[in-house]
Specification:
- With 289 residues, the protein is mostly helical.
- The chain has one domain: ABC transporter involved in vitamin B12 uptake, BtuC (Orthogonal Bundle).
- Helices cover 73% and strands 2% of the residues.
- A two-stranded antiparallel sheet has the order 1-2.
- Helix 1 packs antiparallel against helix 10, helix 2 runs antiparallel to helix 3 and helix 10 crosses helix 11.
- The radius of gyration is 19 Å and the shape is globular.
- It starts with a helix and ends in a 14-residue tail after the last helix.
């Protein structure tokens, strides 16, 4: 039972981690939390579902198109909203992302309705018996895809020239400007990549929870919790924080009470921050604005 629940927790945790990576990217770039991140995930999920149900596309074809559309939404969010409310004001940015969150959520209710909609599974849901443990290919695929995306993002930032430029523009905008890097363009790309990752997380989450206009409420908060728990601004911290939250939730729901499933992760967050305010990987939190 213990190992089974850990496996279940790792599945959910990998999804929290994927969302938390997008939160971390925006924080590194602007020193702010994007409260619309979860709703961008939700919109990307519904775009994919629309391409499947209305456009008649195969799910494996619809997902890349939905990721591109979500990235375009991220570009528009940065260009048309955040840049116009002045990047130099933290309060303006915070209020703007909260406002965008409400607009996207209520717009989704109008366009797609309020009823949960079934999302097709990317992988098989037939359980496999592996050494006595029951695990579905869908769970294995979810973990593998999430980890692969995070690792690919790490190599993008450390090995690819434009990724290195984005990393420098995020960590030290002044030095990046002196070296001829267009910091505004790097921020523009950061929002696009972050939104694309959110869509990937959404299409992996939706087969478990159904596509709903309010699906971002809990998932978005847990993404923030995972990013802060691991040490916000740290890519691997986001991964660690997400996995820890997923496992704690699964074990708490099994051995204590499933009624408090969502509370367990935040209790762990409060305990860790009380002992180590900078997060588990000890990344110093700074406000760049």
């Amino acid at each position: 039972m213990l190992v089974q629940q850990i496996l279940n927790g790792l599945t959910n945790g990998s999804l929290y981690a994927l969302m938390a990576v997008g939160v971390t990217m925006v924080y590194k770039s602007l020193g702010m939390l994007n409260f619309a991140h979860g709703d961008v995930m939700m919109i990307g999920t519904f775009i994919c579902l629309t391409l499947i149900n209305v456009g008649g596309l195969n799910v494996l074809v619809a997902i890349p198109l939905a990721v591109v559309c979500s990235a375009a939404l991220g570009f528009c969010l940065e260009r048309l909203v955040l840049r116009r409310v002045e990047f130099s004001s933290f309060v303006n940015l915070l209020i703007a992302t909260v406002g965008v969150s409400y607009v996207l959520r209520n717009g989704a209710m109008v366009l797609f309705g309020t009823n949960p909609q079934k999302f097709p599974s990317i992988f098989s849901t037939t359980p496999l018996d592996i050494f006595g443990f029951k695990i579905t290919p869908q769970s294995i695929g979810t973990i593998c895809v999430s980890l692969a995306l995070i690792i690919a993002l790490h190599f993008f930032f450390t090995k690819v020239k434009i990724g290195k430029c984005m990393e420098l523009a995020s960590s030290n905008p002044e030095s990046a400007t002196m070296m001829g890097i267009n910091v505004s363009l790097m921020r523009f790309m950061t929002f696009g990549i972050s939104a694309g990752l959110a869509c990937c997380a959404g299409v992996l989450i939706a087969p478990y929870t159904y596509a709903r206009a309010d699906m971002s409420a809990t998932i978005g908060l847990k993404a923030f919790a995972a990013a802060i728990l691991g040490g916000i601004g740290n890519l691997w911290g986001a991964l660690l924080g997400g996995l820890i939250l997923g496992v704690v939730e699964a074990l708490g729901a099994t051995y204590i009470s499933s009624a408090y499933r969502d509370a367990f992760s935040f209790i762990v967050l409060f305990i860790v921050l009380f002992v180590k305010p900078t997060g588990l990987l000890n990344r110093k939190i700074e406000n760049k604005l």
